[in-house]
Amino acid sequence: MSASRRARRRLGENTRSIHLPRPESPGQSTFGLPVWRAASWNFQSSAEYADVLGGEGPGHAPGRIDNPTTSSFAAAVASLEGAAAPEDVAGQAFASGMAAVQAVFLTFLRAGSHVLAPTPVYGGTFSLLTNVLSRFGVTTDFVDYADLARVQSSVRAGTKIIYAETMTDPTMAVADLRGLYRIARAAGALLVVDSTLATPVVCRPLEHGADLVLHSATRYLGGHDDSTGGVVVGRPDLIQRLREVRIDTGCSLSPDDAFLLRRGMETLPLRVRRMCSTAMVFAAAVAKHPAVRRVDYPGLSDHPGNLLARHLFDSGPEGTRYGACVTVTPTGGYQAGAALADGLRLAGIGSAVGGTHTKAAHVAATARLTGKDAGIDAGAVRFSVGLEDAEDLIADVTRALDSLRTMKTP
Ligand SMILES: Cc1ncc(COP(=O)(O)O)c(C=O)c1O
């Protein structure tokens, strides 16, 4: 028996269970991405560890600071968003979409800063700006971005961020990204765009002048309603500053979620293109129903954002991609909206957009930004169109709308 084996037998069972045999690094690439759950890394020396921590040597720093699976997800989004961007594009991944939004605000705002945001804006962002950041001396003006003159006249000396959403839920208003870019540049402010509803398959705001683009990856990027995350991509110098705030605030994405989100991205174009096609057919069919007062979908020629969408949004053999969220407002107000959502059998009830399952949300009942605040009809129902067959979804909504016509209105 060799000396080394004799020495090994002297180790106690606890020590041996900790220092179990490990596989060699395979030295071969894989098609599926490995999940690096590692929250800490083994260094050869303290000097090497210090170099990695200081960003002066190759390697990974512990846990929330760095993880190869998480970085790989951020790089994937940067690659799709930056396909034809004028500058290099880098990315940072966050624990949720809201973690990404708050990191952007914490990085580029300070007490006394002013923000412009659209109305309506995603409810979580509205709440963050009005309930949280307002306590730290940040002020926000919510402006209808359809009126660029209003946006321009709302800029102040302290305006640091013009915050936009490529498409705004539930009106599906389309942001005039180039117009906003001109205003932001002249003001010395950053143009930050939440592109969750568009995805890079529909529109890539960096190509239209945005400094930073962010996503709730929980939605279309992951796409299967099974993981939570956020991501910001854009100019490397800005992303480096964001990274420091992410590390200091600890709102980093977990490797398991990063794995699921990164995997979802491989089918993103397939899913989104198909959802957009279905949404177009769905919106056109629903608009013809006699119980429907209004349909908000940028693909419809009477939508105020239709022309803008044709300029900004990508197209393929299937036509222009206008996104996959459709807001349907039946006549009859709140009660009709509630009955429409509750009368669906195939579409589920839920406000989470972007998954494979079609979902409907009665906006006035479920959104944090109420219809009254943003001029949204109390009957509006926002559909996130999934991957089911269009004819089945149309049959489902038609049946629910038919039954509204027999409903007594108060
Ligand atoms: C447009 C938009 N931005 C931000 C968020 C927040 O994302 P998360 O739920 O991942 O925090 C959402 C969530 O639905 C969203 O729709």
Automatic annotation (TrEMBL):
Entry keyword Metal-binding: no
Catalytic activity: L-methionine + H2O = methanethiol + 2-oxobutanoate + NH4(+); L-homocysteine + H2O = 2-oxobutanoate + hydrogen sulfide + NH4(+) + H(+)
Any one GO molecular-function label of the UniProt entry: pyridoxal phosphate binding
Keywords noted in UniProt: Pyridoxal phosphate
Signal peptide from the UniProt entry: none
Stretches the record annotates as Disordered: 1-28
Family to which this protein belongs: Belongs to the trans-sulfuration enzymes family.
Protein name: homocysteine desulfhydrase
Source species of the chain: Spongiactinospora rosea
